[in-house]
Amino acid sequence: MLKVSIAGASGYVGGELLRLLLGHPEVEVKQVTSERYAGQPVHFLHPNLRGRTALRLVSLQDLEPCDVVFVAFPHGQVAPRIEEFAAVAGRIVDLSADFRLHDPADYPRWYGWEHPAPQWLPRFVYGLPELHREALREARYASGVGCNATVINLALWPLYRAGVIGKTVVEVKVGSSEGGAAPTRASHHPERSHVVRSYAPTGHRHLAEMLQELAFDGRRPDIHMSVTSVELVRGALATAHCFLTEDLGEKDIWRLYRQAYNGEPFIRIVKFRRGFYRYPEPKILAGSNYCDIGFAREEGSDRLVVIAAIDNLMKGAAGTAVQAMNVMCGFAEPTGLEFPGLHPI
Ligand SMILES: NC(=O)c1ccc[n+]([C@@H]2O[C@H](COP(=O)([O-])OP(=O)(O)OC[C@H]3O[C@@H](n4cnc5c(N)ncnc54)[C@H](OP(=O)(O)O)[C@@H]3O)[C@@H](O)[C@H]2O)c1
Fold first, then answer.
1. In this prediction, what percent of the chain has a pLDDT beyond 70?
2. What domains does the chain contain, in order, with CATH numbers?
3. Which residue among 66, 147, 242, 291 is the active-site one?
4. Is 147 a catalytic residue?
Protein backbone atom coordinates (compact mmCIF):
# COMPACT_ATOMS: atom_id res chain seq x y z
CA MET A 1 0.00 0.00 0.00
CA LEU A 2 1.18 3.49 -0.88
CA LYS A 3 1.51 5.65 2.24
CA VAL A 4 -0.04 9.04 1.56
CA SER A 5 -0.46 12.16 3.71
CA ILE A 6 -2.48 15.34 3.19
CA ALA A 7 -1.18 18.73 4.34
CA GLY A 8 -4.03 21.21 4.72
CA ALA A 9 -6.66 18.53 5.31
CA SER A 10 -9.06 20.79 7.21
CA GLY A 11 -10.08 22.72 4.07
CA TYR A 12 -12.59 21.82 1.38
CA VAL A 13 -10.06 20.41 -1.09
CA GLY A 14 -8.25 18.57 1.72
CA GLY A 15 -11.57 17.03 2.77
CA GLU A 16 -12.29 15.83 -0.75
CA LEU A 17 -8.78 14.39 -1.06
CA LEU A 18 -9.34 12.50 2.18
CA ARG A 19 -12.74 11.18 1.05
CA LEU A 20 -11.21 9.90 -2.20
CA LEU A 21 -8.02 8.50 -0.71
CA LEU A 22 -9.83 6.64 2.11
CA GLY A 23 -11.72 4.78 -0.62
CA HIS A 24 -8.65 4.16 -2.78
CA PRO A 25 -7.70 0.46 -2.74
CA GLU A 26 -3.96 1.04 -3.33
CA VAL A 27 -3.49 3.74 -0.69
CA GLU A 28 -3.24 4.05 3.06
CA VAL A 29 -3.78 7.56 4.42
CA LYS A 30 -1.05 8.01 6.96
CA GLN A 31 -1.44 11.57 8.29
CA VAL A 32 -3.59 14.64 7.77
CA THR A 33 -2.52 18.11 8.92
CA SER A 34 -4.13 21.26 10.21
CA GLU A 35 -2.68 23.94 12.47
CA ARG A 36 -5.98 25.28 13.77
CA TYR A 37 -7.56 21.87 14.35
CA ALA A 38 -4.57 19.72 15.34
CA GLY A 39 -5.75 17.00 17.73
CA GLN A 40 -9.35 16.94 16.41
CA PRO A 41 -10.80 13.87 14.68
CA VAL A 42 -11.34 14.51 10.97
CA HIS A 43 -15.13 14.15 11.26
CA PHE A 44 -15.09 17.36 13.35
CA LEU A 45 -14.56 19.17 10.02
CA HIS A 46 -15.68 16.59 7.46
CA PRO A 47 -18.83 15.04 8.96
CA ASN A 48 -19.41 12.84 5.90
CA LEU A 49 -16.31 10.87 6.99
CA ARG A 50 -17.63 10.02 10.47
CA GLY A 51 -17.01 6.34 11.12
CA ARG A 52 -14.80 5.98 8.03
CA THR A 53 -11.47 6.72 9.71
CA ALA A 54 -9.96 7.09 13.16
CA LEU A 55 -7.42 9.65 11.91
CA ARG A 56 -6.89 12.84 13.87
CA LEU A 57 -5.44 16.03 12.44
CA VAL A 58 -1.80 16.71 13.34
CA SER A 59 0.39 19.79 13.08
CA LEU A 60 2.62 20.12 10.01
CA GLN A 61 5.69 19.90 12.23
CA ASP A 62 4.68 16.31 13.08
CA LEU A 63 4.50 15.19 9.44
CA GLU A 64 6.44 11.94 9.02
CA PRO A 65 8.04 10.43 5.89
CA CYS A 66 5.54 9.01 3.40
CA ASP A 67 5.42 8.04 -0.28
CA VAL A 68 3.21 10.86 -1.54
CA VAL A 69 2.20 14.11 0.09
CA PHE A 70 -0.77 16.09 -1.22
CA VAL A 71 -0.59 19.76 -0.25
CA ALA A 72 -3.83 21.75 -0.13
CA PHE A 73 -2.60 25.06 1.31
CA PRO A 74 -3.56 28.50 0.00
CA HIS A 75 -1.52 30.02 -2.86
CA GLY A 76 1.84 31.31 -1.79
CA GLN A 77 2.12 29.01 1.25
CA VAL A 78 3.71 25.99 -0.47
CA ALA A 79 6.62 27.38 -2.49
CA PRO A 80 8.51 28.72 0.59
CA ARG A 81 8.25 25.23 2.20
CA ILE A 82 8.87 23.08 -0.86
CA GLU A 83 12.22 21.74 0.39
CA GLU A 84 10.51 20.59 3.63
CA PHE A 85 7.87 18.68 1.67
CA ALA A 86 10.48 17.16 -0.62
CA ALA A 87 12.39 15.94 2.46
CA VAL A 88 9.24 14.18 3.71
CA ALA A 89 7.95 12.53 0.53
CA GLY A 90 9.40 11.26 -2.74
CA ARG A 91 6.33 12.47 -4.62
CA ILE A 92 4.38 15.71 -4.17
CA VAL A 93 1.05 16.76 -5.61
CA ASP A 94 0.54 20.45 -4.80
CA LEU A 95 -3.02 21.68 -5.21
CA SER A 96 -2.16 25.38 -4.93
CA ALA A 97 -1.06 27.59 -7.81
CA ASP A 98 2.54 27.73 -6.62
CA PHE A 99 3.91 25.32 -9.24
CA ARG A 100 1.30 25.50 -12.01
CA LEU A 101 2.98 28.18 -14.10
CA HIS A 102 6.28 27.45 -15.86
CA ASP A 103 7.51 31.04 -16.25
CA PRO A 104 8.67 32.64 -12.96
CA ALA A 105 7.71 36.06 -14.39
CA ASP A 106 4.06 34.97 -14.35
CA TYR A 107 4.00 34.96 -10.53
CA PRO A 108 4.52 38.70 -9.94
CA ARG A 109 2.19 39.39 -12.86
CA TRP A 110 -0.74 37.17 -11.80
CA TYR A 111 -0.17 36.57 -8.08
CA GLY A 112 1.70 39.69 -7.00
CA TRP A 113 4.79 37.97 -5.52
CA GLU A 114 8.21 36.87 -6.71
CA HIS A 115 8.48 33.08 -6.77
CA PRO A 116 10.71 32.06 -3.84
CA ALA A 117 11.80 28.74 -5.42
CA PRO A 118 11.91 29.23 -9.23
CA GLN A 119 14.39 26.35 -9.60
CA TRP A 120 11.51 24.04 -8.66
CA LEU A 121 9.16 25.19 -11.43
CA PRO A 122 10.66 22.96 -14.17
CA ARG A 123 10.48 19.93 -11.86
CA PHE A 124 6.69 20.12 -11.70
CA VAL A 125 4.39 18.77 -14.40
CA TYR A 126 1.07 20.57 -14.83
CA GLY A 127 -1.16 17.91 -13.32
CA LEU A 128 -3.93 17.54 -15.88
CA PRO A 129 -3.65 13.95 -17.16
CA GLU A 130 -5.71 14.58 -20.31
CA LEU A 131 -3.01 17.01 -21.50
CA HIS A 132 0.15 15.72 -19.82
CA ARG A 133 -0.28 11.98 -19.26
CA GLU A 134 3.10 10.92 -20.64
CA ALA A 135 5.04 13.52 -18.64
CA LEU A 136 3.13 12.58 -15.47
CA ARG A 137 4.16 8.91 -15.82
CA GLU A 138 7.76 9.99 -15.26
CA ALA A 139 7.05 12.79 -12.79
CA ARG A 140 7.79 12.96 -9.09
CA TYR A 141 6.16 16.36 -8.69
CA ALA A 142 2.79 17.43 -10.08
CA SER A 143 0.93 20.68 -9.67
CA GLY A 144 -2.78 20.80 -9.14
CA VAL A 145 -5.02 22.68 -11.56
CA GLY A 146 -7.13 25.81 -11.35
CA CYS A 147 -10.80 24.83 -11.38
CA ASN A 148 -11.99 27.49 -13.82
CA ALA A 149 -8.91 26.96 -15.97
CA THR A 150 -9.61 23.22 -16.08
CA VAL A 151 -13.20 23.42 -17.25
CA ILE A 152 -12.11 25.82 -20.00
CA ASN A 153 -8.87 24.04 -20.94
CA LEU A 154 -10.64 20.70 -21.34
CA ALA A 155 -13.46 22.34 -23.30
CA LEU A 156 -11.20 24.17 -25.75
CA TRP A 157 -7.97 22.18 -25.99
CA PRO A 158 -9.14 20.05 -28.96
CA LEU A 159 -10.08 23.20 -30.88
CA TYR A 160 -6.89 25.15 -30.13
CA ARG A 161 -4.81 22.08 -30.91
CA ALA A 162 -6.45 21.83 -34.32
CA GLY A 163 -6.00 25.58 -34.86
CA VAL A 164 -9.65 26.10 -35.83
CA ILE A 165 -10.67 28.91 -33.47
CA GLY A 166 -9.57 32.51 -33.14
CA LYS A 167 -10.99 34.96 -30.61
CA THR A 168 -12.82 33.24 -27.76
CA VAL A 169 -14.80 34.78 -24.91
CA VAL A 170 -15.70 32.54 -21.98
CA GLU A 171 -18.15 33.13 -19.15
CA VAL A 172 -17.80 30.79 -16.14
CA LYS A 173 -20.51 30.50 -13.50
CA VAL A 174 -19.14 29.22 -10.22
CA GLY A 175 -20.29 27.93 -6.84
CA SER A 176 -19.29 29.17 -3.39
CA SER A 177 -16.91 26.31 -2.49
CA GLU A 178 -14.39 27.75 -4.96
CA GLY A 179 -13.58 30.28 -2.26
CA GLY A 180 -12.51 27.62 0.27
CA ALA A 181 -13.61 27.16 3.87
CA ALA A 182 -12.35 30.45 5.33
CA PRO A 183 -15.34 32.80 5.67
CA THR A 184 -15.36 36.40 4.50
CA ARG A 185 -18.03 39.10 4.58
CA ALA A 186 -18.75 38.40 0.91
CA SER A 187 -19.24 34.69 1.59
CA HIS A 188 -21.51 35.25 4.60
CA HIS A 189 -24.90 33.63 3.95
CA PRO A 190 -27.01 36.82 3.75
CA GLU A 191 -24.53 38.26 1.23
CA ARG A 192 -23.79 35.14 -0.81
CA SER A 193 -27.11 33.33 -1.04
CA HIS A 194 -29.14 33.81 -4.24
CA VAL A 195 -26.43 35.88 -5.89
CA VAL A 196 -25.67 36.24 -9.57
CA ARG A 197 -22.59 38.35 -8.90
CA SER A 198 -19.91 39.44 -11.35
CA TYR A 199 -16.90 38.22 -9.42
CA ALA A 200 -14.10 38.75 -11.94
CA PRO A 201 -15.33 40.32 -15.21
CA THR A 202 -11.66 40.61 -16.24
CA GLY A 203 -8.28 39.67 -14.84
CA HIS A 204 -9.02 36.28 -13.23
CA ARG A 205 -5.76 34.55 -12.31
CA HIS A 206 -6.70 31.29 -13.97
CA LEU A 207 -6.32 33.03 -17.32
CA ALA A 208 -2.56 32.50 -16.83
CA GLU A 209 -3.07 28.71 -16.88
CA MET A 210 -5.27 28.95 -19.95
CA LEU A 211 -2.71 31.03 -21.84
CA GLN A 212 -0.02 28.50 -20.87
CA GLU A 213 -1.95 25.31 -21.59
CA LEU A 214 -3.83 26.37 -24.74
CA ALA A 215 -0.77 27.71 -26.59
CA PHE A 216 0.13 25.55 -29.60
CA ASP A 217 2.95 25.88 -32.11
CA GLY A 218 3.99 29.15 -30.47
CA ARG A 219 0.50 30.61 -31.00
CA ARG A 220 -0.78 32.48 -27.92
CA PRO A 221 -4.53 31.86 -27.63
CA ASP A 222 -6.75 34.91 -28.12
CA ILE A 223 -8.94 34.06 -25.13
CA HIS A 224 -10.82 36.15 -22.57
CA MET A 225 -12.79 35.13 -19.50
CA SER A 226 -15.29 36.46 -16.98
CA VAL A 227 -16.31 34.70 -13.78
CA THR A 228 -19.73 35.05 -12.14
CA SER A 229 -20.71 33.68 -8.71
CA VAL A 230 -24.06 31.90 -8.73
CA GLU A 231 -26.28 29.95 -6.33
CA LEU A 232 -24.31 26.69 -6.22
CA VAL A 233 -22.07 25.16 -3.57
CA ARG A 234 -20.16 22.93 -5.97
CA GLY A 235 -19.83 23.35 -9.69
CA ALA A 236 -18.49 25.41 -12.56
CA LEU A 237 -20.22 25.89 -15.89
CA ALA A 238 -18.24 27.43 -18.74
CA THR A 239 -19.93 28.90 -21.81
CA ALA A 240 -17.33 29.68 -24.46
CA HIS A 241 -18.13 31.80 -27.50
CA CYS A 242 -15.53 30.70 -30.03
CA PHE A 243 -15.13 32.32 -33.43
CA LEU A 244 -14.10 29.75 -36.02
CA THR A 245 -11.30 30.39 -38.45
CA GLU A 246 -12.61 27.64 -40.77
CA ASP A 247 -16.16 26.88 -41.85
CA LEU A 248 -16.64 23.71 -39.82
CA GLY A 249 -19.94 21.89 -39.38
CA GLU A 250 -21.14 19.98 -36.33
CA LYS A 251 -19.78 16.70 -37.73
CA ASP A 252 -16.31 18.26 -38.02
CA ILE A 253 -16.50 19.48 -34.42
CA TRP A 254 -17.61 16.04 -33.22
CA ARG A 255 -14.62 14.54 -35.02
CA LEU A 256 -12.16 16.88 -33.30
CA TYR A 257 -13.56 16.03 -29.85
CA ARG A 258 -13.56 12.29 -30.58
CA GLN A 259 -9.97 12.42 -31.80
CA ALA A 260 -8.87 14.32 -28.70
CA TYR A 261 -10.83 12.44 -26.07
CA ASN A 262 -11.47 8.93 -27.37
CA GLY A 263 -10.92 6.56 -24.43
CA GLU A 264 -10.62 9.33 -21.82
CA PRO A 265 -12.22 7.96 -18.65
CA PHE A 266 -13.49 11.30 -17.33
CA ILE A 267 -14.51 13.26 -20.42
CA ARG A 268 -18.03 12.88 -21.80
CA ILE A 269 -19.45 14.64 -24.82
CA VAL A 270 -22.98 15.71 -23.89
CA LYS A 271 -25.03 16.97 -26.80
CA PHE A 272 -28.55 15.74 -27.44
CA ARG A 273 -31.47 17.09 -29.42
CA ARG A 274 -34.13 15.88 -26.97
CA GLY A 275 -34.64 15.46 -23.24
CA PHE A 276 -33.90 17.65 -20.25
CA TYR A 277 -30.16 17.07 -20.17
CA ARG A 278 -29.16 18.19 -23.65
CA TYR A 279 -25.99 20.01 -22.55
CA PRO A 280 -23.59 19.73 -19.59
CA GLU A 281 -24.84 20.76 -16.16
CA PRO A 282 -22.69 20.98 -13.04
CA LYS A 283 -25.47 19.95 -10.65
CA ILE A 284 -25.40 16.30 -11.67
CA LEU A 285 -21.59 16.15 -11.48
CA ALA A 286 -21.33 16.92 -7.75
CA GLY A 287 -18.86 14.48 -6.21
CA SER A 288 -17.86 12.97 -9.58
CA ASN A 289 -14.64 13.41 -11.53
CA TYR A 290 -16.28 13.97 -14.92
CA CYS A 291 -15.91 16.92 -17.20
CA ASP A 292 -18.94 17.05 -19.50
CA ILE A 293 -18.52 18.97 -22.75
CA GLY A 294 -21.14 19.97 -25.34
CA PHE A 295 -21.36 22.43 -28.19
CA ALA A 296 -23.74 24.24 -30.54
CA ARG A 297 -22.81 25.62 -33.95
CA GLU A 298 -24.66 28.83 -34.79
CA GLU A 299 -26.07 28.80 -38.31
CA GLY A 300 -25.25 31.73 -40.56
CA SER A 301 -22.30 32.93 -38.46
CA ASP A 302 -18.80 31.87 -37.47
CA ARG A 303 -19.74 31.32 -33.80
CA LEU A 304 -19.36 28.00 -32.04
CA VAL A 305 -20.65 27.83 -28.46
CA VAL A 306 -18.86 25.26 -26.29
CA ILE A 307 -20.41 24.39 -22.92
CA ALA A 308 -18.54 22.47 -20.22
CA ALA A 309 -19.23 21.55 -16.60
CA ILE A 310 -17.26 20.13 -13.68
CA ASP A 311 -17.39 19.85 -9.90
CA ASN A 312 -14.71 22.39 -8.93
CA LEU A 313 -13.64 20.36 -5.88
CA MET A 314 -13.33 17.17 -7.96
CA LYS A 315 -12.24 17.49 -11.60
CA GLY A 316 -11.24 21.06 -10.70
CA ALA A 317 -9.05 20.02 -7.73
CA ALA A 318 -8.98 16.81 -5.66
CA GLY A 319 -10.28 14.39 -8.32
CA THR A 320 -7.74 15.48 -10.91
CA ALA A 321 -5.00 15.37 -8.25
CA VAL A 322 -5.83 11.74 -7.40
CA GLN A 323 -6.04 10.94 -11.13
CA ALA A 324 -2.56 12.46 -11.54
CA MET A 325 -1.25 10.38 -8.61
CA ASN A 326 -2.71 7.27 -10.26
CA VAL A 327 -0.77 8.06 -13.44
CA MET A 328 2.44 8.86 -11.52
CA CYS A 329 2.23 5.64 -9.51
CA GLY A 330 1.16 3.32 -12.34
CA PHE A 331 -2.35 2.60 -10.99
CA ALA A 332 -5.35 2.31 -13.30
CA GLU A 333 -6.40 5.92 -13.86
CA PRO A 334 -10.00 5.72 -12.60
CA THR A 335 -9.00 3.95 -9.34
CA GLY A 336 -10.81 5.58 -6.43
CA LEU A 337 -12.67 7.95 -8.74
CA GLU A 338 -15.57 5.79 -9.90
CA PHE A 339 -18.40 7.65 -8.08
CA PRO A 340 -20.84 8.75 -10.81
CA GLY A 341 -22.54 11.61 -8.94
CA LEU A 342 -26.14 11.76 -7.67
CA HIS A 343 -29.45 12.24 -9.40
CA PRO A 344 -31.67 13.83 -8.31
CA ILE A 345 -29.75 16.10 -5.99
N1 LIG B 1 -11.84 25.36 -3.62
C2 LIG B 1 -11.65 25.02 -4.89
O3 LIG B 1 -12.60 24.85 -5.66
C4 LIG B 1 -10.25 24.80 -5.42
C5 LIG B 1 -10.10 24.31 -6.72
C6 LIG B 1 -8.80 24.12 -7.23
C7 LIG B 1 -7.69 24.42 -6.44
N8 LIG B 1 -7.89 24.92 -5.18
C9 LIG B 1 -6.70 25.22 -4.40
O10 LIG B 1 -6.53 24.26 -3.37
C11 LIG B 1 -5.96 24.88 -2.22
C12 LIG B 1 -6.88 24.64 -1.03
O13 LIG B 1 -8.14 25.23 -1.31
P14 LIG B 1 -9.39 25.07 -0.34
O15 LIG B 1 -10.56 25.56 -1.09
O16 LIG B 1 -9.41 23.72 0.25
O17 LIG B 1 -9.01 26.13 0.81
P18 LIG B 1 -9.46 26.12 2.33
O19 LIG B 1 -10.76 25.41 2.46
O20 LIG B 1 -9.36 27.53 2.81
O21 LIG B 1 -8.32 25.24 3.06
C22 LIG B 1 -7.00 25.73 3.22
C23 LIG B 1 -6.17 24.75 4.02
O24 LIG B 1 -4.86 25.29 4.16
C25 LIG B 1 -4.56 25.49 5.54
N26 LIG B 1 -4.00 26.83 5.69
C27 LIG B 1 -4.63 28.00 5.75
N28 LIG B 1 -3.76 29.02 5.85
C29 LIG B 1 -2.55 28.47 5.85
C30 LIG B 1 -1.23 28.98 5.93
N31 LIG B 1 -1.00 30.29 6.01
N32 LIG B 1 -0.21 28.11 5.88
C33 LIG B 1 -0.43 26.80 5.78
N34 LIG B 1 -1.67 26.26 5.73
C35 LIG B 1 -2.70 27.07 5.75
C36 LIG B 1 -5.84 25.35 6.30
O37 LIG B 1 -5.55 24.64 7.50
P38 LIG B 1 -5.61 25.19 8.98
O39 LIG B 1 -6.64 24.35 9.65
O40 LIG B 1 -4.25 24.94 9.46
O41 LIG B 1 -5.99 26.64 8.92
C42 LIG B 1 -6.70 24.47 5.38
O43 LIG B 1 -6.49 23.11 5.69
C44 LIG B 1 -5.80 26.38 -2.56
O45 LIG B 1 -4.49 26.63 -2.98
C46 LIG B 1 -6.79 26.56 -3.68
O47 LIG B 1 -6.46 27.60 -4.53
C48 LIG B 1 -9.13 25.10 -4.65
1. 100
2. 2-125 (3.40.50.720), 148-312 (3.30.360.10)
3. 147
4. yes
